[in-house]
Amino acid sequence: MLRPALLALALAAAANAAQAGECEDNFKKSGNAFTGVDFSSAVTVPDQSIADAIGQMRGIMIGEKMDVLSEDVETGTLLVEQRSTNTTRPIPTLINVYDEGGAAAVEMTVKTEKGQFAKAENIRSYMCTLLGKLQGGDAGRQAAAKGAATQNVDDVTEQDVYMFSRRIAREGQANAAAVVARHTGRRYALKGKVSSIQQVEGDTIVAFHILDHNDSIIRVPGDNAPQTGVACVFKPNQQALVLTFRRGETARFEGRFAEYDNILHQVWLDGCKPARRR
């Protein structure tokens, strides 16, 4: 006879296998690479509330190094996104949870932009692996409590100022609200040439030279987004560093994304300090 602990593990494994099979059966693909593709599937998790399922999915997705952009337990929605890099664009994933008479129906949709190519079988395997981690009963509630407290990974993204500027410009042209949700609070380590230095109410604002993208040799086809400026706010405790800056010289700095103005086409980072060479 199986001991209680082993029996619980066996039941959990059986439940996860059943969810993985349900996910594969419910998997759907719509759209195409020229307009954008939606991959979706759904599973039902027994003895879980909407809040439980949202908490579990939060922990699971952050564990996959995704960022939570929006979360609403009351409506059962969770929007997460794979963080973009110099070579990859962000890929959003939408989670919707519905009450099914004491069970939680969890629907996942991965949305790719036009021009992004992905094999359906790879996406299906990836999605079903994640949905297969959902647990029911007390184990699920414990995982939900832990997941609800999990925070986005607080790492530092390194980039050239010009590349960072163009990235924000393109994202802002597509959806300015998404820029705020995606970047606010993230830390960036940037390298660029100083264009101006000015003091405002004790802080020092350092603006960086952004090459006009029409004159740049680095061009993305179809990129006609307006030029976006980048400025970093240095507090008085960084004045010794700021006094060494000169217009036209290259500086390395690190700051937290604080504000984006889609009208002025301007980004501000605050809490700026010297960036460590990595």
Name some characteristics of this structure.
31% helix; single chain; 12 strands; 5-stranded mixed beta barrel; 7 helices; TATA-Binding Protein; 6-stranded antiparallel sheet; alpha+beta; 278 residues; OB fold (Dihydrolipoamide Acetyltransferase, E2P)
Could you characterize what this model shows?
- The chain is an alpha+beta fold.
- The chain folds into 2 domains: 4-148, 2-Layer Sandwich (TATA-Binding Protein), CATH 3.30.310; 157-274, OB fold (Dihydrolipoamide Acetyltransferase, E2P) (Beta Barrel).
- The protein contains 7 helices and 12 strands.
- The strands form 2 sheets. Strands 1-2-6-5-4-3 form a 6-stranded antiparallel sheet. Strands 8-9-10-12-11 form a 5-stranded mixed β-barrel.
- The longest helix has 23 residues, at 4-26.
- It is elongated, with a radius of gyration of 23 Å.
- 29% of the residues are buried.
- The model is unreliable at 4-14 (pLDDT under 50).
- Keywords: Signal.
- Residues 1-20 form the signal peptide.
Concise summary:
Residues 1-20 form the signal peptide. This protein has 278 residues and is an alpha+beta fold.
Which structural category do the helix and sheet elements fall into? alpha+beta
Strand order of the largest sheet: 1-2-6-5-4-3
Distance between the ends: 55 Å
Number of strands: 12
Beta-strand percentage range: 35-45%
What is the CATH class of the largest domain? Alpha Beta
Helix content: 25-40%
Number of helices: 7
Number of domains: 2
User: Gyration radius, to the nearest Å?
Assistant: 23 Å
Q: Give the overall form.
A: elongated
Please state the second-level CATH architecture of the largest domain.
Answer: 2-Layer Sandwich
Average pLDDT metric: 86
What does the main sheet amount to? 6 strands, antiparallel
Task: Return residue spans where pLDDT drops below 50 for at least 5 consecutive residues.
Answer: 4-14
Keywords: Signal
